[in-house]
Amino acid sequence: MSALRTFAVSLTIPDNEAFTALETLARLGIPVGRVARADVWQFEVEGAPGDLAAAVASFETIFNPNKHRLAERASERPEPGEVWIAPRDEAPATLVAGRPIPGVRAIRRRTSCSTRRAATSRPTCSPAPSRRFSATPRSRWQYYDHGDGPSAAASCVERNLVARSDVGAPRCAASWGARSLGRSAFKMTMMVETLAQRSARKSGVGEMYTIATLGSHSALQILKGGHDEGFKTLAIANEETQRLYRSFAFIDEVITIERYSDFMGLVPELEKRKIIIVPHGSFVAYLSLEEHKKMNIPYFGNKAVLDWEASRELQRQWLLRAGLKLPRQFKTGAEIDRPVIVKLYGAQGGKGYMFLRDTRDFEERASLLARQNYILQEYIIGVPLYIHYFYSPLTGRLEVMSMDRRYETNVDSLGRIPSAAQVGMDIDPSYVVVGNQPLSLRESMLAEAYRMGEDVVRVSQEICGPKGLFGAFCIETIITPDTQFYIMEISARIVAGTNLFIDGSPYSYLNYSEPMSTGRRIAREIKNALLSNSLDAVLDDGFTEPPA
Fold first, then answer.
1. pTM for the model
2. Which pLDDT tens digit goes with each residue over 314-331?
3. What's the Cα-to-Cα distance from 191 to each of 30, 176, 194, 259, rounded to whole Å?
4. Domain segments of the chain: what residues?
C-alpha cells in the first residue's frame, strides 16, 4: 500500500533572488517585510521506507544544511493562503540526481508561493507594471489553490501562460518564478510574508544604498560585488586611477580627488547621501585611526577593532588570548638569538620589512629603523598561507571564503638563484607584495583553520564587544613541516588576496551555487540586513543620524 509524504525545503536566510522579489513587490505597492523561498517535494512511498527525512537531507541537490531547513508537512495539499505551481500533465520522476530513494515509487516537485497581507487591502499586480510584461505560450501550468483564492503573486500570471518580463522591467514574484520554472523544473519561486515593521532610520533603512570605497586595493572586487547584488556603486579615485575605474561598466560613479589622503575633505558631501563605505587596506594606509572614527558615514564593520589591529602589541594580546600559536617576539636587538623579520606598523604591503640574522645584523642596520614603529618577530621557516574568512553577524556563522599566498619582490625571485651564486651579490631580501597566488589547504588541516577563525571572532566579541569582529578578515599564517600553524598577524577587513576569486573560490563554491567573491559576500550581507531591517547589525556603532 502506498502513501504520499510531503516535505518543504525553505531557505534559512534571505538570498539574492528573494531580495529581487521584495523590491519588485514594494514597487507594486505591496507591503512586504520578508521574502523567502521554498520547494515542496512529494514522495509516493511503499511500506515503511525508513528515515525518509534523512534520505531526503542526504541529497545535496535538495538540501544544504548551511542554507536550508527541512520540514515534513502533515498535509499533501497547500496550506491556507499558499499556492503550488507545477507543469500541467507533469510526469513523476523516479530518481533524484540520478539516484533512487529506497522505498520511493514516484517523486514530484512543486513551487510554493504564499502571501500574507493586511485584511484592508487586496494586493494585485498594478496595471502599469503589468503592461510591461509580455505573455508567451510555453508549457502549460496548473495551480493548486487553497483558501479564499489565489495569492497576489499567483494572480499575476495568466492561466496556461508564462509571463515574461523585458530586460530591466520589474517582475512580480509568481511571474518571475514561473519564468524560472520555464527554464528549469528545478527553480523556486517566492513565499512572501508580511512582518510587523520596526522603526526605520530616517536616513533610509530599507531603501537602496550606494556601495562606496576608495579606488585602490580591492575596490574592483567590492564594487563588482555590490553591482551584482543590485546596489549602485561609487569609486573614489585619484587623478592617476580615475580613468581605470571609469572604464568598468559596473561602476556607476567615480569621484576624483587629488590624493587618497584628501578623502576626509569629501566626507561632508558623502554624509548627505545614502552611502555605505566598505573599507579595505588603503583606508588603513591613507587615513589615521582618528579620521576613521571621525567619519560619520554608514561604515561596514566595527571601527573598535581597528585599535586592536593597528597596534602590534594589542593584536598579539588578542591572538594569544584566542589560544593561537605565535612566533617569539623580541623587545630589543640585544635579545635576538635567531633570525627575525622586522615589521613596520600599518598596512603597507610588506614595504620596509627586513630580514635580520642576529644581534650584530640588527646593530649594523639599526639606523634604517630610526623614528619608525616596528616589531622584531621570529622568522618562521615554512609555507605562508593567508586564510580569508567572513563572519556574519546576522546568522552567527563563520565561512572560509578562500586562501592565497603572496608573491613578494625580491625575496621570491631570490629563491630562483642558487645559494652559491648569491655569495657576494650583496642583495638584501625585500618583502613588497606585487601579487597573489591561489592555494587550497589539505582537508585534514581545514578544521584547525576554521577553529582559529572561530576563536579570533569569539575573543573579539569580548575585547571590543558586543559586535566584535565581523565581515571579512584574514589570518596570516606560516605552516611548518610538522603542519603547525604559526600566526603572523590578522587583518580585520577584506584583503587584496581575495582579488584572485572575483568569480568565487573552491571554498565559496561549497556554500553558494553562484559566483561569490568576498566583495560580493559583503554586499550580500548588507542586502540581507536591509531585507531583515537589521542594518544596524552590520554598521559601526559610531554612526549617528544627521539632524532632521
1. 0.63
2. 999 999 999 999 999 998
3. 14, 12, 10, 48
4. 2-193, 210-301
Q: Residue 187 corresponds to which amino acid? A: K
With beta carbons less than 8 A apart as the criterion, state whether 241 and 216 touch.
yes
β strands within 115-264, DSSP E: 133-136, 141-145, 162-165, 190-193, 210-214, 232-238, 253-257
Comparing CA positions, the residue from 110, 107, 103, 89 lying closest to residue 2 is 103
Three-state DSSP at 520 gives helix
Using CA of residue 248, residue 251, residue 256, residue 262, what is the dihedral sign? Answer: negative
What cell was used for 362? 640588527
Terminal Cα-to-Cα distance of the chain (whole angstroms):
69
The reported pLDDT for the residue numbered 157 is: 33
CA 387 – CA 448 distance, rounded (Å): 11
pLDDT band at 358 (very low <50, low <70, confident <90, very high): confident
Cell triple for 319: 591572538
CB 539 within 8 A of CB 278: no
CB atoms within 10 A of CB 519: 30
- CATH architecture observed for domain 210-301: 3-Layer(aba) Sandwich (3.40)
Helix (H) or strand (E) holding 319: helix 312-321
